[in-house]
Amino acid sequence: MPDVRSAAGLEVLVVGSGGREHALALALARDPGVAGVHSAPGNPGTAQVGRNYPVAVADPEAVATLAADLGVDLVVIGPEASLVAGAADAVRGVGIACFGPSRPAAELEGSKAFAKAVMVAAGVPTAAARVCESAEQVAAALDEFGSPYVVKNDGLAGGKGVVVTTDRQAALDHASSCARVVIEEYLDGPEVSLFAVTDGRTVVPWQPAQDFKRAYDDDAGPNTGGMGAYTPLPWVPDDLVAEVQRTVLQPTVEEMARRGTPFSGLLYTGLALTRAGIRVVEFNARFGDPETQPLLARLRTPLGGLLYAAATGTLADEPPLEWDPGAAVAVVLAAEDYPALPVTGQMITGLGTGGADGSVVVHAGTARDQRGHLISAGGRVLTVVGTGAELAAARRTAYARIARIELAGSFYRTDIAKAAVEQRAGER
Ligand code: AMP
Ligand code: GLY
Predict the structure, then answer these.
(1) Which of 80, 287, 289, 383 maximizes ligand 2 atoms within 8 Å of its Cβ, making it the mutation to test the pocket?
(2) Site to substitute for ligand 1 among 119, 151, 162, most atoms within 8 A of C-beta
(3) How far is CA 51 from CA 42, 54, 174, 292, in A?
(4) Which residues contact 246 (CB under 8 A, 6 or more apart)?
């Protein structure tokens, strides 16, 4: 695609309405090469960065029509549902550069069975797995791998499709609720999220982050979309990123190109660092939430230029990424009863203006009521990001700020980045 950037700078449309999208909008607005940031549908946070436009994110034609009407230079797509529906293809179809994989490439996230097949073909280390379509196959696979059982819904399930349990009946029950299910070997070891920006050939890995998926402290409670994250990870081996680049990212991107469905956009690898080595737990086809929030707090490379280069196939010409040497810690404020049936419509107060302490409030499930007051509107309501020279300082800043926010019934984990600060994060 030719470089059609307007002289005044890039006009960018961010699709989605979560914390990830607000963080993307904030980082794009900091890029001196970006002239304007628009969001669709956005949230009250993105409304402070630029204008919000209503759109159904899973309707590719609606997304493409909006992008064309706004005349933007670049569309950045956040949600997997949008990508799996083909929004990136539709945007490119109207001649606009798009950061995000095509519909077939997004199957790396959309189907666990497809992702396994690509990993096997590319020789990427991952858990051994069986794809099952009957109760007999499920029972046989559970016996083959033994407890703890790992049972994954094949399709998209909003971060709630995976059950890890020592209870065989619970494993059978989850499997029977899925049309197609992947049963796999249990991976024992700390988890790391590694993002890579790619144009389908060149792969640019980011610094690693760690996400906290369980609802409550000490990894108790149900799986969630993610309750907090931090970066950098002082406890991972120095060569981790280089090894993942060589054994996971590059082979996967090459295999996708070989299949005629090149993957461009953000390749998110969830890794387990097991005693036997690095294993891929999952791929996602988009920025992770909440890892994006602390990572973007540290990325110094202008984001708009980077994503535009990925979208137009020119990543090889970009300079190496630059990172702030400090740390960032993100803590999610969740609504009462998240993730089961989050309570919404409650008043949020105490946000303050912040900033002076290096903290940022990133909106996700928030809305304005008729009088303009901020209210809760989703399970993960907002993320507070603290920065500092060290993880300990970033953590203190994030927790001091979130403690001042009031939302009836809400809760947050108090142990985000705690083990890393206490130098026991890599333990298992
Ligand atoms: P996924 O949606 O595949 O990322 O799975 C969600 C979460 O389930 C992961 O972040 C892990 O904590 C856990 N999980 C998934 N697969 C495995 C596995 N093979 N072994 C252990 N835990 C797993
Ligand atoms: N933080 C996990 C995810 O975005 O899927």
Answers:
(1) 289
(2) 162
(3) 8, 10, 42, 21
(4) none
CATH of region 190-317, choose from 3.30.70.330, 3.30.470.20, 1.10.10.10, 1.10.40.30: 3.30.470.20
Ligand nearest to the CA of 229: 2
Alpha carbons 92 and 101: distance in angstroms, whole number = 11
Find the ligand nearest to 289 CA. 2
pLDDT in tens, 273-317: 999 999 999 999 999 999 999 999 999 999 999 999 999 999 999
CATH of 129-184, one of 3.40.1160.10, 3.30.1490.20, 1.20.1540.10, 3.30.428.10: 3.30.1490.20
* Low pLDDT (below 70) residues in the chain: 1-7, 158-160, 353-355, 428
186 lines ligand 1 (CB under 6 A): yes
pTM score: 0.95
Is the CB of 159 within 6 Å of ligand 2?
Answer: yes
Q: Does residue 127 contact residue 187 with C-beta atoms inside 8 Å?
A: yes
Instruction: Tell me how far the alpha carbon of residue 205 lies from the centroid of ligand 1, in angstroms.
Output: 21
CATH number of 327-421: 3.90.600.10
pLDDT of residue 155: 79
